Amino acid sequence: ATGTFSAESASGWQTLTFPRAVAVTANTTYVASYHTNTGRYAGDAGFFASSAYTAYPLTALKEGTAGANGVFRDGATGFPTQTFGSANYWVDVVFANDAGPDTLPPNVATTSPDSAASGVRLDATVAATFDEPVTTASVQFTVKQGTTTVPGTVALNADRTVATFTPSAQLSGATSYTATVKGTDDSGNAMPAVYSWSFTTGTPRPAACPCTIFDGFSQPAIASAQDPGAIELGTKVRFDTNGFVTGVRFFKGAQNTGTHTGSLWNAAGTRLATGTYSGESATGWQTLTFASPVQVTGNTTYVVSYHTDAGYYSSSPGYFGSSGADYQALHALKDGADGGNGVYRYGASGFPTGTFGSTNYWVDVLWTNSLTGDTTPPTVTGTTPSATGAPGTVAPTATFSEAVDPASIQFTVKDGGGALINGTVSYAAASRTATFTPAARLAAGEGYTASVRAADGDANLMAAPVTWNFTTSTVQTCPCSLFSAASVPTTVSNNDSGSYELGVQFTSSVDGSVTGVKFYKGAGNGGTHTGSLWSSTGTLLATGTFSAETATGWQTLTFGTPVSITAGTTYVASYTDPQGFYSSDSNYFEQGPAISTPLTAPSTATAANGVYSVGPGFPTNTYRGGNYWVDVIVTTP
Hints:
Layout: E1 53-55, E2 58-60, E3 71-72, E4 82-83, E5 108-112, E6 117-120, E7 126-130, E8 140-145, E9 148-149, E10 152-156, E11 162-167, E12 176-182, E13 195-201, E14 231-239, E15 243-252, E16 260-266, E17 271-276, E18 284-296, E19 302-308, H1 319-322, E20 325-327, E21 330-332, E22 343-346, E23 354-355, E24 363-368, E25 380-384, E26 397-400, E27 410-415, E28 420-421, E29 423-428, E30 433-438, E31 447-453, E32 466-471, E33 487-488, E34 500-508, E35 512-521, E36 530-535, E37 540-545, E38 553-565, E39 571-577, E40 594-596, E41 599-601, E42 611-614, E43 621-622, E44 630-635
Parallel strand pairs: 6-13
Antiparallel strand pairs: 1-2, 3-4, 5-7, 7-11, 8-9, 8-12, 10-11, 12-13, 14-19, 14-21, 14-22, 15-18, 15-24, 16-17, 16-19, 20-21, 22-23, 25-26, 26-30, 27-31, 28-33, 29-30, 31-32, 34-39, 34-41, 34-42, 35-38, 35-44, 36-37, 36-39, 40-41, 42-43
């Protein structure tokens, strides 16, 4: 039968009634379809992959019952036979049963959890949906663990088609349960037998590693994608610390049969370990433990994968597009962190590099930080320098309670505005001491914050960094500047191609002379730069052009004639940046002043600092105390 739809609404269900009803035979497969010239059809991927949809006496078939379901044909109208991803294209039939009075019993159309479902949450309710209303008094609903009945309560929804069993307490993890339900409709037709189905709860994560990224309750959107054939599927992973990969696991749908192998690869495609899965269940998470653990390096990308000869793998399209997946020190990377994630390779087992639609193919890693059982991270037992009076040449240190992995040490020093100090980190194994050596002398009288974090040899990483503050001595040798030459801007090159004059206000506590101006240069900050010294009212006191600049870093201009400055008087040092891409630290002077005795760049609490103008000229504009990394060179008597 065929016909043309008429009087269609703008959206929603549209109905065509055939001129003559078509008789159909029970338990026989038919196809209902519609044709559109404009596309833009409705669809739900994976709809028919795991279950049929029944509204008694009608059933939309589960994938594989009579071939694939969710069928289509490109082009002119005709019999649709193609399929993709078990999609439901939302085509329905209108059925009439003219057999007389209702003598058919109710039927269970759907269940929750699905039959044979795995990874079910421990706080889940159990429900059965009937294809017609049933009487409240007739409902018999039980859930059992083996022969033990689970206590709970049963309720019907308002239209008496959904019966829900709510357990009195949480279900047990990694346990199989069997539910049974029976009911009678309003015409007195009782189901001839109970409807029974089983499901298995997920496994909670262990208190300590070995551990995994995905928990035992994680479920793919599509249990068995309609893509037959041999394929290797994988996930890119990283770990916060060094550790050991002990195996690989993957989620298996009912159609993903045959032999499966699991592998660990480095980012260059070298296979580091492999093995064959054994004792697999019909569905759910399958686990392979390698014959020998593989030591892996923190903050380094690896790939875990499995190979199937049958295809029909589990998937969740778009999963890695907006976020990765994380558990403690384990990470499945978001797209863009190291290329695309959700990788595959068709054919024989090999390193998977293809990606499609940020899809998660549900491959997971088993990782542990220790093979010895040591799960206690190191602690910091001592730090230097003390609170005040450290020399400008100080090299902060931290001593640990046990030996640590030198590669794991995270040691930073920041100035009072929050900018990092450039330097090198060393580790003395005999004393268990890490040392941070600044690349240049620190500013005199400035406050600094040191921070350290590390992991021991079993990759037990400290839960949080240990921080301490110190202030350098006011003893100074001039020529001197506001900032240490080891200072590094947080934003080295702003994505702003405008033309600006960028500056800093400063005072000196003693009389002296300004011999030049400095600025920090990032990539893209090209063109000719001029440096200037101004009075607080905008009188130009000295200027010059920078020459022999380096590609990046601090640039220095020496004035032809030094300019005398008076103690306690405010001056402005600036440079002209014709092409933008300047260095900056937002809110720097809101944190406090920059001090290098006898020089001070005041905080926004006492003066508007971090000054600029659009185009060359005396800079007077400010925004939230931004530091544009302009400095002076001062000599004192």
